Amino acid sequence: MNSYHLTHLKQLEAESIHIIREVAAEFKKPVMLYSVGKDSAVMTHLALKAFYPDKPPFPFLHVDTTWKFKEMIAFRDNYVKNELGIELLVHINHEGLKLGINPFENSEKHTEVMKTDSLKAALNKYGFDAAFGGARRDEEKSRAKERVFSFRDKFHRWDPKNQRPELWSLYNAKVNPGESIRVFPLSNWTELDIWQYIYMEKIPLPDLYLAKPRKVVNRNGIWIHVNDERMQLLPGEVVEERMVRFRTLGCYPLTGGVESDATTLPQVIQEMLLTKTSERQGRVIDKDGGGAGMELKKIQGYF
Amino acid sequence: MSHQSDLIAKDILAYLEQHERKELLRFITCGSVDDGKSTLIGRLLYDSKMLYEDQIAQLENESKVHGTTGGGFDPALVTDGLRAEREQGITIDVAYRYFSTAKRKFIIADTPGHEQYTRNMATGASTADLAVILIDARYGVLTQTKRHSFIVSLLGIRHVVVAINKMDLVGYSQETFDKICSDYRDFASRLDLPDLHFIPIAALHGENLVDPSPNMSWYRGSTLMNFLESVYIGSDRNSNRQPTQLGLPRILWHAGLRNYPKGG
Ligand SMILES: Nc1nc2c(ncn2[C@@H]2O[C@H](COP(=O)(O)OP(=O)(O)OP(=O)(O)O)[C@@H](O)[C@H]2O)c(=O)[nH]1
Ligand SMILES: [Mg+2]
Question: DSSP label at B169?
Fold first, then answer.
């Protein structure tokens, strides 16, 4: 390999930064969807690099279901908003709250109302024409099929059977009023790429990704964290203290932790590389709707 | 799991250091409808142990419902992820898959063979360094094989592996293989395909993908995986993307040029 040859991470970084700049240049009103997880952390880092020393020329939007781990909210406010000084919008579906929607009684309904509908309402409210998301193609089989610039009609729907051509690194930014594009700058990154980049670039993360003793209950084989007093226990469930960490972050009642001794980043990476199950296994929402769950959600306008 | 190395367990920091330096090879599978492109990718990932247990369990269940292999594990379902694709047993749009070996990191684009979705094939091909063009050994070079080869040549993909597939259905015949190779060479002489290779395979059974096939001992070349790991791609245009220039956009931005020249 000669010195001109870029390592794969440098190539991925360059590609993502190119995409982020394209969007800033081509769209009237872009927004970065920020979900506090590791992919968002990498996207934030790339957005900062893309315009350094300026701040990214678009706001970040967090669709808060009000059921996120409290550590996520603290990290969002202390680090992203205060320390990095990024313009942060937080959107909560108050109608949903009034209806008493919660993740315990009906997780599908909760996701639909507090996440999908809420996201659509927020995008409509501000009139964003492009929204960055941190999804990766290696996460799930319908995401593996999605373009980097993913067109959405005015109801935010994805049409998997009629995607636009996307040649080289030329991205089609044409939309009519009301239509929009979801942009996935991390499309070609894998879970390992994300971790390795976080490690190399020393990107800060919520400590939920590292194992420590946490109060958990075992529900259908996965460890659910008792993150606050709203946790509803089912008959027979006992709270125990276990060394657990989380591979993905979301609503705490719907996010399974794994038992682990990994207290450093390299140990987390090591466990991830040796595990025999995929990262989305701990997610309750992917199991809703059977094998085509994610595709159906995307057709309805979920990320 | 999409990464295999003894170093992972022994010395994770050494592994990360090694992994950080890997080169990236982007390739596509293409060719006529039903010649086994998706099967090839699925099988390649399965044989190199790149699939997670929960994914395999799910695929085994789905094979019973949607499989085209009579209920047995259908490797094509690894990439045919859309409902419509599973229902119709064909690929509609490109699927991207990722894996790495000790030497390289790979991005695979599994493209559709159906004529109606040729533009989706072009989407996948535009970023590739290498193309695996499949041919069904029973039918030889077809119109769609030629169309895809033409697009590959037009887009400047320099490395081409013609994988003659379903060799099991032609009795692993060397004669059939040789005949198709020579037909393809005749046709390809009119295209710009400077680096052309031929491998006889049976994708469904994993023959000559990761492991050499005992049924085709007459073939002395490398397996597909061996080839992908060793083909030299260093100086190619498609794989040589420019490093990011920080700072430039800002200057242009401030100069009021929102549509600064596209990099990369
Ligand atoms: N006997 C045999 N059958 C094979 C082989 N490879 C693929 N097939 C079968 O051929 C059929 C088509 O395979 P696919 O992998 O879906 O073909 P494809 O090229 O991806 O098709 P499109 O993407 O729709 O163009 C399936 O039923 C496979 O099981 C092989 O090596 N031997
Ligand atoms: Mg296919």
Answer: G
Comparing CA positions, the residue from B149, B140, B142, B94 lying closest to residue B117 is B94
Domain range for A22: 8-193+292-300
Q: Is A176 exposed, middle or buried (0-12, 13-18, 19+ CB in 10 A)?
A: exposed
Give how many domains chain A has, as a whole number.
Answer: 2
Of B22, B53, B81, which is closest to A145 when you measure between CB atoms?
B81
* Nearest of A57, A51, A69 to residue A205 by alpha carbon: A69
Instruction: Give residues whose Cβ lies within 5 Å of ion ligand 2.
Output: B 37-38, 91
Q: pLDDT by residue for chain A (303 residues), tens digit each? A: 344 457 889 999 999 999 999 999 999 999 999 999 999 999 999 999 999 999 999 999 999 999 999 999 999 999 999 999 999 999 999 999 999 999 999 998 999 999 999 999 999 999 999 999 999 999 989 999 999 999 999 999 999 999 999 998 889 999 999 999 999 999 999 999 999 999 999 999 999 999 999 999 999 888 999 999 999 999 999 999 999 999 999 999 999 999 999 999 999 999 988 887 776 555 554 444 446 778 888 888 777
> Is the CB of residue B204 less than 8 Å from the CB of residue B39?
yes
Both tokens assigned to A13: 């970084």
Residue B256, pLDDT score = 41
* Same domain assignment for residues A158 and A269: no
- Which residue segments constitute the domains of chain B, with CATH numbers given? 6-255 (3.40.50.300)
Relative to the CA of B201, which ligand 1 atom is closest? 31
Q: Are B64 and B71 in contact (CB under 8 A)?
A: yes
What CATH number does the domain containing A78 carry? Answer: 3.40.50.620
Cα three-residue angle B169-B170-B175, rounded to 5 degrees? 160
Q: Do A244 and A179 share a structural domain?
A: no
Minimum distance, in Å, between the CA of residue A96 and any CA atom of chain B: 30
Ligand 1 centroid from CA B120, angstroms: 19
Q: Do A8 and B105 touch (CB under 8 A)?
A: yes
Q: Are residues A95 and A123 in the same domain?
A: yes
Residues 6+ apart with CB under 8 A from A5: B23, B234, B240
Q: Let me know whether A115 and A259 are in one domain.
A: no
A178 min Cα distance to partner chain B (Å): 22
Tokens for A221? 């084989």
**For position A281, what pLDDT does the model report?**
59
Question: Considering the domain boundaries, does residue A199 fall inside one?
Answer: no
The rounded distance, in Å, linking the Cα atoms of B231 and B222 is 11
Residues of chain B with Cβ-Cβ distance to A14 below 8 Å are 241-244, 264
ipTM score assigned to the predicted complex: 0.87
**CB atoms B81 and A142 under 8 Å:** yes
A156 and A253 assigned to the same domain: no
Is A2 inside a domain boundary? Answer: no
User: Where do we find the tokens 């140990």?
Assistant: A267
